[in-house]
Amino acid sequence: MLAADKPERTVIAKERHDDELIHFEDHGTAPLPPAAVEGHVGREGARIWYASYGTGPAVILLHGGLGHSGNWGYQVPALLQSGRRVVLIDSRGHGRSSRDARPYTYELMAADVLAVMDDLSLDKAAFIGWSDGACIALILAMTAPSRVEGVFFFACNMDPSGTLEFVATPRIDRCFARHARDYAELSATPDDFHPFVEAVSLMMRTEPNYQAADLNRIGVPVAIVLGEHDEFIKPEHAEYLARSIPDAQMIYLKGVSHFAPLQRPAEFNAAVLSFLDGLPS
After folding, report:
1. What's the whole-model pTM score?
2. What is the distance between the alpha carbons of residues 136 and 14, in angstroms, rounded to a whole number?
3. Hey, what's the torsion of the CAs at 206, 229, 80, 151, to 10 degrees?
4. Interstrand relation of 8-12 and 249-253 (parallel, antiparallel or unpaired)
């Protein structure tokens, strides 16, 4: 697709759920079901936690920065019900995964995902990425396309110019408070939340740094997905990504923000399942 071409666009309406994240701050998401397989893989100074659920075509869910795999609590049951195997991975330093002192990079975390796939003897999977997880998934589409069925890329940028100026809101504050509480409960270093936030934030300010020529080489199916009221990502950047990636879809989710999987999960899940159903078999 040429940069001047207009991407295919799908608009999905939604119904009200937890738009202000009041429930999420107080209670988190639905608890994850019992895993069929759960463990850690050691790689490059970190122990990376993962869990696998169900059988069928594999889908890997990659969470956003400062969060953890439990943030997918509303998505896992829907994917299992659709007859898919679901794999969750806590990014290094997040959730149940540890890290060493080296700086965060998206490429390092993408390599961690491949290590988990190898440990599970998983040759290929579709990826659902949220924020930082979306960036990791798209890097895998560029660097390890034989392992990637497709990428549902929700709410992220692929170069620093794609982000809006940060403006604190009560909704963001509620999400941050939940992340702090979960970190203290799950992390092997429960008192290190603030250094963790500083290290992840440094990565977010300076990475990723991919250009249109990099994006144009992607050869797997991709949906670029953005909430109508996203607090962090410029809509024009999302459209640029959809123009730059061959045959990419551009999907806008109405009435939601950067936190659509928590705000209105039924409608978010419908968009995910529609994408997965459209992948080549």
Report:
1. 0.94
2. 27
3. -40
4. parallel
Domains and CATH numbers, the chain: 8-277 (3.40.50.1820)
Sheet holding 46-53, edge to edge: 8-12, 249-253, 222-227, 148-154, 125-130, 58-62, 85-89, 46-53, 37-43
Tokens of 80: 């299992």
Whether 10 has a pLDDT exceeding 80, the answer reads no
Under DSSP, the state recorded for 233 is B
DSSP designation for 225: E
Backbone angles phi, psi at 151, to 5 degrees: -135, 120
At 4 the pLDDT is 39
* Per-residue pLDDT, 16: 54
Beta strand 37-43 with 46-53: parallel, antiparallel or unpaired? antiparallel
- Tell me the per-residue pLDDT of 155-196, one tens digit each, with 9 for 90 and over: 999 999 999 999 999 999 999 999 999 999 999 999 999 999
Alpha helix locations (H) across 157-232?
170-186, 193-206, 212-215
Residue 65 Cα distances to 14, 135, 203, angstroms: 25, 10, 10
Token pair of 189 as six digits: 């270093």
For tokens 């796939």, the residue is 117
User: Does residue 228 contact residue 264 with C-beta atoms inside 8 Å?
Assistant: no
Token pair listed for 271:
């968009």
Q: What is the pLDDT of residues 236-254, one digit of tens each?
A: 999 999 999 999 999 999 9
Q: How many CB atoms lie within 10 A of CB 223?
A: 24
